[in-house]
Amino acid sequence: MVSWENEVVMRDVTNAGLVVGDRIGREISGQLDLEEALEASRYSSHPYSTHPREWPPLVEVVNTWELPAVLIERYNAAGGEGTALCGIFPEIRRAWASVDNSLFLWRFDKWDGQCPEYSGEEQAICAVGLAKAKPGVFVEAIQYLLVLATPVELILVGVCCSGRADESDPYAEVSLQPLPEYTIPSDGVTMTCITCTNRGHIFLAGRDGHVYELQYTTGSGWQKRCRKVCLTAGLGSVISRWVVPNLFKFGAVDPIVEMVVDSERHVLYARTEDMRIQVFSLGPNGDGPFKKVTEERNLITQRESNYGGRQQAGSRVPSRPNKASIVCISPLSTLESKWLHLVAVLSDGRRMYLSTAPSGGNNGVVGGLGGLSANNQRPSCLKVVTTRPSPPIGVSGGLAFGALPLSGRSHTDDLSLKIESACYTSGTLVLSDSSPSAVSSLLIVNKDPTQSLSSAGLGIGARGSRALRESVSSIPMEGRMLSVADVLPLPETASTVQSLYSELELCGFHNSWESSEKNSIKLCARGDLSTQHILPRRKVVIFSTMGMMEVVFNRPIDILRRLLESNSPRSLLEDFFNRFGAGEAAAMCLMLAARIVYTESFISNVVAEKAAEAFEDPRVVGMPQLEGSGALSNTRTAAGGFSMGQVVQEAEPVFSGAHEGLCLCSSRLLLPLWELPVFIIRGGSGSPDGMSEDGLITCRLSVGAMHVLEDKIRCLEKFLRSRRNQRRGLYGCVAGMGDLTGSILTVTGSELLSGDRSMVRNLFGSYTRNVDSNDGGSSNKRQRLPYSPAELAAMEVRAMECIRQLLLRCGEALFLVQLLSQHVVARLIQSFDANTRQAIVQLTFHQLVCSEDGDGLATRLISALMEYYTGPDGRGTVDDVSNRLRDGCPSYYKESDYKFYVAVEYLEKAASTSDAEERGNLAREAFNNLSKIPESADLQTVCKRFEDLRFYEAVVRLPLQKAQAVDPAGDVFNEQMDAGIQQHALSQRMQCYEIVANALRSLKGEALQKEFGSPIRPIAQSVLDQASRKKYICQIIQLGVQSSDRVFHEYLYRTLIDLGLDDELLEYGGPDLVQFLQNAGRDPAPEAGFSPMGHSRVPVTSNHRKYSELLARYYVLKRQHVLAAQILVRLAEKRSTEAGDTPTLEQRRQYLSNAVLQAKSASETDSHNFSVRGAIDSGLLDLLEGKLAVLQFQMKIKEELEAMASKLEASSDGSESTTNGAAPDNGHSNDLNFLHAVREKEKELSMDLKNITQLYNEYAVPFELWEVCLEMLYFASYSGDADSSIVRETWARLIDQSLSRGGIAEACAVLQRVGSHVFPGDGAILPLDTLCLHLEKAAQERVVSGIELVGDEDIARALLGACKGAIEPVLNTYDQLLSSGAVMPSPSLRLRLLRSVLTMLREWSMSVYAQRMGTSSAGASLILGGPFSLGQTTVINQGVRDKITSAANRYMTEVRRLPVPQNQTEAVYRGFRELEESLLSPFPFERL
User: Fold this and answer.
1) 262 within 8 A of 280, measured Cβ to Cβ
2) Is the CB of residue 1488 less than 8 Å from the CB of residue 1402?
3) Cα(550)–Cα(108) distance, rounded to whole angstroms?
4) Is residue 151 within 8 Å of 122, Cβ to Cβ?
5) What is the 3-class SS of 1257-1276, one letter each residue?
6) What's 634's DSSP letter?
7) How many C-beta neighbours within 10 Å does residue 1198 have?
8) Could you give the angle at which helices 605-616 and 556-565 cross, rounded to 10 degrees?
9) Would you give the end-to-end CA distance of the chain in angstroms?
10) What mean pLDDT is predicted for residues 692-696?
């Protein structure tokens, strides 16, 4: 369990992150470009200073070595007249010297007794170089190539460098490997110097003034392995070199004496004997093409003439009898300057800074907005930008400005320096001075770390504070300096620095191919203050004619350490704080006390304790105070009195130097991390800004670099925690403040001075310290809010505690990233989606430490790591990695996380076991662990695994527990709560409920739309049969109903409905199901959002009918048929709404039909219930049946209108095509209006139910739907008039309408169809006499006119069909018409009626016989047409036969009376006679 002192409060971490981020920003912006500093120093009178004499030396010699004896012997043997060269190879920690044809190598940092000699050549060595071997050419053991040049040959020698077995010394062994195949002739050119690039290119300078490249490959076939290429000469030069003898070459040759390579800008500089400087471009990436850019001859003269009589401040005006010469040139790294590219050191000590850019200075591109592209700009010229005056001649203690006292110098002596050799590297200049009348000495010039504070103390303005001021140190030296080189840091240290600072553009590593050791040295140019925690003391080795010595540069922290070790007077410590400032000095004390500074020796406890005491000593670091409160100057006027009307500025707290030092120390530790990505893409075409298919996501920093940084951060946090626990410093000052102090010291999330921006500002202090306290010109008066010293101390303690927590969090973040890196990040995140992978690549360390998004991504990464251990192919157990995570990063991996992953481990074991009982027990254990941490569990993943195990209790209960945890106050149930808060609580609960819904969908067989973060081993749906699925679905419903969460009940019910699990819902729904269905079935409220109490809080769909249907089904299942019928009637009568949830007429008919069934069921099953029986007796069933009948009328009318509209549209389309674009006539326009009216009425009928009156008057009659009108009149039992004139008129209109549409056939069909619906009736609704007469007359007219052929039987059979086969009413109608002479004046019409009567009599006789035989009339006709026996006549009813016989006889007589020709009546007469005879014969119907 993590103790309280290690707890992290994210609010405090975030606030501290703002402070540290601001400090980092100021640290970066405070790094001036060398061009700006030099420009400002032109106006400064103090360009140089010297180190205080009382302090430990800034530069000191730590080791000296004599030259190897074998080298001295060989040189003496040559009599001092041979060719001797020397130099240093810092890459392999070796010095070298050549005597004639022999080369000696020995260790320069320590004498190991070895000095191997290489003398494989006969000619004297004239130039030596060391190059990095190109990969793939030589064996892997050959890391470097030794390049030897003699007057006749160029030789490559392999260099193998190896360390000790214990890896304590990587430079222990160096061996030389001859490469005889890589030797070529020099073609008579004597080489003067050799330089090499980091890509393995070898450039040689010849005495003929040309530059050559030595190219080498593996060689194949005829191709040479090695060749020399002249890069600076054309064809003419080559011919002259070979053809024209040297005797005839009259032009003077200016040989190159020095070449240097700018590995960042890929530029080669060459210096000649005549002080010309040549500039060559090596190509955009250093691989060519080689191109000469420019050559400048008179740089020194140009500079002096440009400035004329104007002298830089602080420079001397010496007499210069001799012209100054260039001693050395050196490229400037981009870390020093983006605009100055080269520095040339002159023999008088001056430095010329040159640029290859076309324009420079603050007025040109240099220093302007084009700075971002400065590194990519190719060289185009060479010009002197500025000149730095030479250092002072005499170096003494204290500050030295300008020319120093000239004691010891005679008046005749030249006042200028006499520089024999020089070396400039990474901001440090080493000069070998051999001035007359002075001991030869080394002058070492580097940047003064106390520059900014000292300038401010001397009253220098802003420009002076930006000016470059350098410290000058002098070391006596015997002999003459021959070579100088940096002692490169060890590879382990260099790789750490390279990893940390490689992505920082201000460090210039991003564009360099140099080794990490050389890049680390470049970082020294930033100054010691910002790098002394990570870089060791800088060392250089100086090769002189008398031997070698190692010089070390003490950093400010080394000087402070020496002061503390030597028990120096307190005044020296105070002077140190004054010079460096309280903040910087406190930061150094903090680094010593926490032991986070890079040192060669262990920091003793005495030094650490003294440093801690100084860090906490208010006499040197100060106390927190209000800004300007030191002399009460804020309220005093210039005259010394008070001004009552003067505006008093609000006083802001200014914390002590201890807080400032902690901020500085923390920001410098976090600078290489803070705003840079944690992960990057390597090895592919992608970049951190975009995903790459072939790239791998990995940690940006190496594990070793992160470990070093984590160790330093944790040491710093541990020191701060120990001082807090011991109540040291300000912690002791606030210890007596009671509860206030308790909250501060225990860091339990106190509300002290927090809550808004002003409080945060007060918490961390003001960063604007240079405020004029006498300024009273503000227009707004603000009341000053003073704080007591105790309150100020408490505020500073609180601020330092926040930074301590930030450090703790950063250390944990580094530990986590290391752990992830050790497990291969690309493998861990391979299952992440593209968005998550993109977020991981874009994640900065700041976000990882301080933001919620970063914390979430860390959780995802930890989850992937745990999956690596607990997955199907896991590499261990949860405890293996959990212990490391809980110890290393408890704020990222909490106790709840441990329980979660223990549960995941149980789930994995359960998934791998085949024993059902054991699987259930393991799942139960996992469930019990997760029940303790419902708010922390990743339920989407684990619940899916519980689904695979069919342990649905966890699938339901865990999300419900988390829903309760995320909304503990029950805001979702509180109707008085703010809508936004309530909605937020609801959305959080919904995320939990969705897990249960997904389980139901999975069981239902629907594919989930959402993928989970970690891979799940799914169980195929085919494993479960339908019965098992239903069982688990019912189990989920029952578990859900047992919950008291009403909102979940609503969500569960809706999910079941959406999935079509209606039966399960109705069977297992809870007691609140009825209320839910009732509320959900209501029409939606006009306003959105939360409904009043009792209504649903869950977002619903617009299908409200579904809920009412389910409610009706529920009542049916509970045998509450009357309630079910009422719900169905309500559904049928539902009015149209804009929500689109309107039932169709067919659906309404179905609802009413079901309501009728329920009403009938109620009368049958609930007859014992008197109230129900009373409802039925009161006419409920009749009412429902009536509504159903009226709805059927409405549906029929709608169908008629649809058919009518379709017909009109078809005719309208036809008419439009025929008119062929002509203007429509009035008839066509009327048709369109009528069509529109039909469509409108049709739409009205679809909206809701209409009563029968509306249907008749508004729809049926206006659109002449006479058939429907008759049916409605019959349904309504209409008896509004005595003579039934309306009915007769309606029938007449219907028959006329039918005749016009289809003639007699259509009219007969309509009559038969409609009449069958209204027969039998009271006679008023089916006036047979009117119908018969109307049809017979129409038939007669159509036959006579020839319009239509009408059969004798058509009308009679139509009337018979209308009467449903009842023959007697039809015969009575015909008999009535025939007996009425007034009605039947036409003989031909009477004859037609008699034919119809004959048909009816025949039909009657057949029907009677068929009834007796149990068949139809048609069947009887078939039977009678075949063999017939005598006994069959007995089956005919004698009474009916007599009636038919009598009627046939009577109508036969009527036929004879007709005044028409006999030929027209003969067939009818014969028909009646045959019918009569057949009835009277013993074989009836034989002749029919």
Assistant:
1) no
2) yes
3) 9
4) no
5) HHHHCCCCCHHHHHHHHHHC
6) G
7) 19
8) 110
9) 114
10) 67
3-class SS of residue 1072: coil
Report the phi/psi class of residue 69: left, alpha or beta, with left for phi > 0 and alpha for psi in -120 to 50: alpha
pLDDT class of 401 with cuts at 50, 70, 90: very low
Q: Which two tokens stand for residue 190?
A: 């004597």
Tell me which DSSP letter residue 138 carries. Answer: S
Task: Please spell the DSSP secondary structure of 426-478, one letter per residue.
Answer: TTEEEEEE--TTS--EEEEEEE-TTHHHHHHHTT--HHHHHS--EEEEEEE-S
pLDDT for 1102 beyond 90: no
CB 50 within 8 A of CB 398: yes
Residue 1440 pLDDT: 76
Quickly tell me which residue has 């005679």 as its tokens: 410
Q: What is the pLDDT of residues 432-467, one digit of tens each?
A: 888 765 567 889 998 988 855 444 444 445 556 788
CA dist 1216 → 1203, 1224, 1233, 1313 (Å): 20, 8, 15, 36
Torsion of CA 1330, 1332, 1333, 1339, to 10 degrees: 140
> What Rg do the C-alpha atoms of the chain give, in angstroms?
55
Amino acid at 201: H
* DSSP code for 1256: I
The position carrying tokens 């000149």 is 387
Tokens 């002159």: give the residue: 346
Taking a C-beta distance cutoff of 8 angstroms, is the pair 230, 189 a contact? no
Report the 10 Å Cβ neighbour count for 30: 11
Residue with tokens 């890196």: 821
C-alpha closest to that of 995 among 1046, 1066, 945: 945
Cα-based angle 150, 156, 161 (whole degrees, multiple of 5): 125
- As a whole number of angstroms, the distance between CA 745 and CA 731 comes to 8
Contact between 1038 and 1068 under an 8 Å Cβ cutoff? The reply is yes
Spatial separation of the C-alpha atoms in residues 1462 and 208, rounded to whole Å: 153
Q: What is the pLDDT of residues 620-654, one digit of tens each?
A: 999 888 876 543 333 333 444 434 444 455 667 88
Average pLDDT estimate for 217-224: 74
| Alpha-carbon distances, residue 1143 vs 354, 819, 1131 (angstroms) | 89, 63, 8
How far, in Å, CA of 953 to CA of 1117, rounded?
A: 28
- Phi/psi at 1235 (5° precision): -60, -40
Beta-sheet strand order (sheet of 291-296): 256-262, 267-272, 277-281, 291-296
For 864-927, the DSSP string reads: HHHHHHHSTT-SS-HHHHHHHHHHH-TTTS-HHHHHHHHHHHHHHHHHH---HHHHHHHHHHHH
User: Which residues 6+ apart lie within 8 Å of 935 measured at CB?
Assistant: 896, 962, 965, 966
pLDDT band at 1 (very low <50, low <70, confident <90, very high): very low
Residues sharing a CB contact under 8 Å with residue 865, sequence separation 6 or more, in sequence order: 819, 820, 823, 828, 881
- Cβ(226)–Cβ(182) below 8 Å: yes
The answer to whether 868 touches 823, Cβ cutoff 8 Å, is yes
d(CA 492, CA 495): 5
- Residue 564 β-bridge partners: none
pLDDT of 780? 44
- Crossing angle, helix 582-594 and helix 556-565, to 10 degrees? 70
Residues 6 or more apart whose CB falls under 8 angstroms from that of 1098 comprise 986, 990, 1047, 1050, 1051, 1054
The amino acid present at 1250, given as its one-letter code, is K
| Secondary element (H or E) of residue 549 | strand 547-553
Q: Are strands 48-50 and 653-654 parallel, antiparallel or unpaired?
A: unpaired
CB atoms within 10 A of CB 567: 8
Alpha carbon distances (Å) from 207 to 204, 267, 295, 327, 1216: 10, 21, 17, 18, 104
